[in-house]
Amino acid sequence: MRKLQPMAGRKQFDVDEALRRAMHVFWRWGYSEASVDRLTDGTGLNRSSLYGTFGDKSALFQKSLERYAQTYHPLYSEALCAPHASPSAVIAAYLQVTLNRIADPTVPDGCLLTMSATQLPALDTKAQTLVHTMIDTLRTMLTQALLTAGATSQEAADLALCTLATNKSLAVLSRAGFPPKDLTTVAAAAARIPH
Amino acid sequence: MRKLQPMAGRKQFDVDEALRRAMHVFWRWGYSEASVDRLTDGTGLNRSSLYGTFGDKSALFQKSLERYAQTYHPLYSEALCAPHASPSAVIAAYLQVTLNRIADPTVPDGCLLTMSATQLPALDTKAQTLVHTMIDTLRTMLTQALLTAGATSQEAADLALCTLATNKSLAVLSRAGFPPKDLTTVAAAAARIPH
DNA sequence: GACATCTTGGATCGATCGTTCCATGACCGG
DNA sequence: CCGGTCATGGAACGATCGATCCAAGATGTC
Asked: What's the CA A8/C1' D30 distance, rounded, in angstroms?
């Protein structure tokens, strides 16, 4: 059977772009509802290419999580490493990264990491560990930045936790359909916690 | 739940208790991962009794959501309707209900409503509407209580939103495995937002 | 030009999904 | 005491799940 478009000796698609699209499918649907059919539709690849390139569904999910970290953690890192006059400014800068991501129309609602955290029982051991590691990384980054901004050790620990919590809540509210204005209100209030 | 004598002419199980257990299965696993097998295991009923009593999976899920509301909304209502000296006290009382529920070892981690909100795309229209309605109900209850406690209209709206957000974040953190101490810290910080 | 290598599309696998059906047997009104 | 009603257990349904396999075709090397 003949094809209008040529076949291949080498890959006929952009692996990185395909991974980005697969990540979006997991992001939008969550691990369980991200069927292989939805992944093939979302990436444009067929089953053979998907399995041949990324391995099974769980491996693709882990690669998507890593890709998520590689994409967004640098943004948080940049925001946190900039000089801040106070812990409040650190929190505001961090949450602004989240708000910007949520406002990005080319990306699904919510947050892949938060989605995955709520569905931990559905993930295999490696994916669970990866989720925990990613959360810990963000928590550490926040704590360090808060210390640098002049917070005491206790304040930094507490505020890092609360900022992480606010981040999660923004993801949930976003997925629940709350308007951007409400998300901004929540983020602004979180930055007013310390005195 | 079941008798040694196998059959029956009338129901051989407590319908309300079965619904409570089904609710726990949805609560722990989320809608997608709550397979009928897990529901039969969790309730002790077999497929026939489950379908004959509650209808299909979506109907059972909706009944579980309603059961959740009937169980916990009164607790929030009680906490909110008690006299409070300040908006902060209202927030603390509300979040304490959530902390108590999360601390309850007989119940899954997190919050069925939050779980469902993050998985809205996987739910059918009626379930989606039900989730939105339940969230709106809680939001309205909070706003009213905050107004009663002396908040201005704007304050009440903002604080109700932020308290709802904190509630969601507690659910996510709980499912992510954060210890109760961390949840208490987050709730306490949320009650310190207003001045 | 021929062969080895690799990707692609599509068929197909067994398992599990939600759902339905049916034989069985206990109950209740006659 | 008998027949209608209904819950139960379990088999079985078609659909979809994740995953694998294979023929077809394009490429690079010889």
From this structure: 20
Residue type, B195: H
CB B64 within 8 A of CB B112: yes
CATH code, domain with B183: 1.10.357.10
Tokens of B5: 């004598």
Determine the distance between B108 (CA) and D16 (C1') in angstroms.
Answer: 29
Q: How many domains does chain A have?
A: 1
Nearest CB among B158, B162, B169 relative to A168 is that of: B169
A70 domain residue, yes or no: yes
Going by the DSSP 8-state scheme, the letter that residue B121 receives in this structure is G
CA distances from A146 to A69, A76, A160 (A): 21, 13, 8
Q: List the single residue in B28, B161, B170 with the smallest CB-CB distance to A186.
A: B161
**pLDDT one-digit tens code per residue, B59-75:** 999 999 999 999 999 99
Residue with the two structure tokens 């609602």: A109
Per-residue pLDDT at B10: 73
Q: Is B132 in contact with A30 (Cβ distance < 8 A)? A: no
Nearest nucleotide relative to B36: CA against C1': C18
Question: Which portions of chain A are predicted below pLDDT 50?
Answer: 1-8
Cβ contacts, strand C, under 7 angstroms? A 3, 5, 7-13, 45-49, 52-53; B 5-10, 34-37, 47-48, 51, 56-58
Residue A3 falls within a domain, yes or no? Answer: no
Domain carrying residue B138: 62-190
Report yes or no on B93 lying in a domain.
yes
CB B53 within 8 A of CB B15: yes
pTM over 0.85: yes
CA of B19 to C1' of C3 (A): 66
Residue A119's CB is within 10 A of a number of other CB atoms, namely 24
Position B5 in a domain: no
Distance separating alpha carbons of residues A38 and A50, to the nearest angstrom? 12
